[in-house]
Each structure stands twice: as structure tokens, then as C-alpha cells.
Design goal:
This protein is of the alpha+beta class. It has a four-stranded mixed sheet with strand order 3-2-1-4, sandwiched between helices. The radius of gyration is 15 Å and the shape is globular.
């Protein structure tokens, strides 16, 4: 009998394939996105050094207080704006977008569009 893979396992395999081609450098770091059922997380990572340069999530008290819910499109837009603001403060203007194996729609697309509108280039 053929057993169907879980959606989480399919996402992990997609992300592994994508990461083979995506790598962040000091000049152009990687914007990695992860979403769970209740929160979203975004990090800007330099893969050559293995350092997280900037991070933001809906778990943080300051961002969480301004949101009604932490798992909807409005929260994703707020997170995209916040990560872009923090990146620009650190002098990061261009990034490589890593959607983490998630489909580029809904919350992931909202986060990316908000980050672009706030000044990040990718």
C-alpha cells in the first residue's frame, strides 16, 4: 500500500532542494521565512559565517502587542515591515528570499511584499 507523505515532510524536502541553490553571503544575505500554525519568523542570515544578522518574529512582545492575531496576513505584513526596517538599520539593502519550502502565496507573499515596500530589494 502506498503511504501518502505528510505536508510537513513535503515542505522539508522542498526546502532542502531549494537550499542547495540558495546561499546568503555578507554582501547579499538570505531572508529565511518560517511559519507555524500560530506565529511567523523571519531571519536574515549570512551563510558563509553561519551568523544571523537580523531576526524578527510575531512572538516578540513589541510586535505581538500591536497585532490582533499573530497568524494572519496582517501579522505577516507587520513582520515584513519590521524585518526590513531592522535590516536597513544594519545597512542591509539586498537579500536572497528563502521561502522555506512554503508556497509563495498568502502569508509568505504578504511578508515578502511588505519587506519590498519597506525598502528591501530581492
Amino acid at each position: 500500500m502506498i503511504k501518502k507523505q505528510s505536508r510537513a515532510e513535503i515542505r522539508r524536502k522542498k526546502h532542502k532542494r531549494m537550499r542547495y541553490h540558495l546561499s546568503g553571503t555578507a554582501q547579499k544575505p538570505r531572508l529565511a521565512v518560517f511559519r507555524s500554525n500560530s506565529h511567523m519568523y523571519a531571519q536574515i542570515i549570512d551563510d558563509t559565517e553561519g551568523n544571523t544578522l537580523v531576526a524578527a518574529s510575531t512572538v516578540e512582545a513589541a510586535l505581538k502587542a500591536s497585532l490582533k492575531q499573530t497568524n494572519n496576513i496582517e501579522a505577516a505584513k507587520a513582520l515584513g515591515t519590521e524585518i526590513a526596517k531592522r535590516a536597513l538599520d544594519k545597512g542591509i539593502k539586498t537579500v536572497i528570499f528563502d521561502r522555506g519550502g512554503f508556497i509563495y502565496a498568502g502569508k509568505v507573499a504578504a511578508l515578502a511584499d511588505a519587506a519590498r515596500e519597506a525598502g528591501l530589494e530581492f
